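Q: My labmate handed me this sequence with no annotations at all. I'd like to see what the chain might look like in three dimensions before we decide whether it's worth expressing. Could you predict it?
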Amino acid sequence: MKPILALCALLTCSTFVSAAEPAGVSLAATACEGIYPRHLQGICTNGKDAIYWCWTDALVKTDTDGRVLKKVPVANHHGDLCFHAGRVYVATNLGKFNRPAGEADSWVYVYDGDTLAELAKHPVPELVHGAGGMAYHDGKFIIVGGLPPGVNENYLYEYDASFKFQKRHVLASGYTLMGIQTAAYADGAWWFGCYGKPAMLLRTDEKFQFTGKWEFNASVGIAPLDRGRFLIGQNTAVKGKSNHAKVVIARVDEKAGLVIEKP
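A: Here is what I predict for the chain of 263 residues:
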């Protein structure tokens, strides 16, 4: 290979490796078809042609235009989710959230990315305040969850690919309402969405050192795309206590953390 071609190949490879995971997704803002009794908990994509939406007690797969391809009932409370190697992983709590240790019942449920058939479930008892969100990168899952009032830090629980517990990382974020709801990794940083008035967005570096906190709502879904962009879930409650949701595009902004792109 000629030197200039080798350099181009190296740059291309480096760009791909550092891109958000999954990489190379080109998506636009869209709405999920249907109305759901419970609100949106999280979103992820398969990196090519599908968006997954978790509705607390229903798991939905749509195409990139939001048309429903698969829908299955799931245990309450299924939370935020991530996609890896053809499977969808959902942080789940069958107990109570945001309570002292001993009242949660934390799991990760695993589904086939094509059919949404349940494949496995893994206990994650270290999430003593309730498992609520998760993301995958570089051989590890990071799971987040609830937090009792008055605790002025958050916790990130690291597991290997077989869900063997590795470490609890302490995040010096201050208190956030009900802990952390959503998680995503992109371009050397971990991002976390939190409830609150206002809702808060947290960021760490690759080694989980706290690097930023902003007023931005990613509490019901954040999924990496490419070129510093994310899909952000937005839930709307409608009359009769039902819900519908959409995703919009946000991009990284040094001052604001993330900003929503105009259509």
